[in-house]
Please model this.
Amino acid sequence: MKADYILVNGKFYTSNEAQPWADAAAVKDGKFAAVGSWEDMSPCTADCPVYDLGGRLVLPGMIDAHTHMGLSVMLGDDDDGFPMYDCKSKQEILETLRREVKAHPFKLYYAMFIGQAEALDGETLTRWELDKIVKFRPVILMESECHSAWVNSAALKLMRYNRNTPDPAPGYSYMERTADGELTGCIKEMAMLPLLEICGNVSDKDMKSGMKKIMDYLVAHGVTTVFDAGNYLNEENTYKLLKEMDEAGDLPVRVEGTHIINMPDKLPGAIEKFKYFRDTYTTENIKFKTMKMMFDGTQRIRTAKMLEPYNGTEITGGTIIPHELLNQFVRDLDAEGIDFHLHTVGEGAIRMVMDAVEKARTELGRPLNIRVTCAHVEVLHPDDINRFKELDIIANFTPHWHGGACAADIHAMEKLLGEYRANNSLQAKTVFDTGACVTFSSDEVSLHTLDRWSPFTGMEIGHTRREINEDGSLGPVFPPAAECLELEDLIKGYTINAAYQLRLENQIGSIEPGKDADMVILKENLFEMDPYEIHNILPEAVIIRGKKR
Ligand SMILES: [Zn+2]
Model:
């Protein structure tokens, strides 16, 4: 057999447990024809180009197992939206708004991101304070994680929200109220969907250029496949654009699409909607196998579902639907063969998913046909650590948060969660060591922070548990230090394990004969370099299906 080309004298880290390292690989028709030593290449050697890698490290193509391209594109990247991104107090936020309104007096609305929710922690920002600055046009201040927003009275009016509007899912998605029931203007979770409709109105041209920007960045940083974990209101536009790109030969990565359930009223009909996307937008590089659900919220705003209340409160957070509906939905998805990916931050949400899977397995008398993934897994109860492996539930983590990006610092975490939970969060290594399938991702929602999309940023922070600050300095080790991940495990989570999550383990995820020839060639040796330089890695070459991008 004649190969198209052979790469020799490399250090191939294959993610294939049967053959973890190799020094040569032959590629034919976009697939690996042989992997091993130079001798193993001999059946392929007859008269084909041979390239000497000069000892360079080669990794399998990276897989981002949870991120949000369409949502990021919708939120845009013009600097208009970010003047208060670095504000550190309520006073600064109000002053910035005042300045922005003065500088842009004729805007139809003012939509901006607040970078750090902590800027407000302990203090409430009310619509009456915002009304004093802008009375007749909507003001929307979105927290950068996109889980809460502060708006003025004009924005509430535009959304048709008033004191009689019921909360979509109390505890999880609701509107903050005064003691006598008036809306304060603070909106938690997806009750703010109508806001995204107002401020996420991006033109086709901007969608296209934003998507191209993300794709170029991902591929340049070694990503060859992406799980698109949901785009809120931008689903149709996102998949339409991706399909157009693929049909024009402009989609460099494989995309696993989804349909996202982010409000309780989207549950009935969700499977039909999912099938619509699958029927309408499947192409060679775009597939739909997984339903997404925003099952709970976030720690910062106490909407993530806990087993015990948040420190010093009676709040335990909430979930989008109660457990009876979840149990039934798991059964429904199993019957349809649609995999299930759930946003689960809190210990209570994770346990509900585990209980639902366990119950379904008992009732069916067999393991599920579908793959279930708990994403984020920030606070995990010790009793549930082994249940990922036992119930065959995949745990998806976002390693670039493992330096403590979810909180200002450990003291803020302790204040929020109490000492034990704060000092035992994000236990990816412990879960990995149980033998469960652990996958990694960037979970990004912004074009403004592209460096966070790089799997190498994730690898560095997952390995060191130290945040990389904007000025390049490093934060302290985020506890527990024992949760620092090995680089081998990080690579597995970004390759073969992520392929399993996406049901692509027979096609990609490792460098082995028969699989698509996806490779990332590095100048640096990841395993020997200064770990604090890993986030700077820019691969020398990225090869997808045998072709250099
Ligand atoms: Zn996400």
About this structure: The domain at 64-70+203-509 is CATH 3.20.20.140 (TIM Barrel). The chain has a mean pLDDT of 93. The chain has two domains: 64-70+203-509, 77-199.
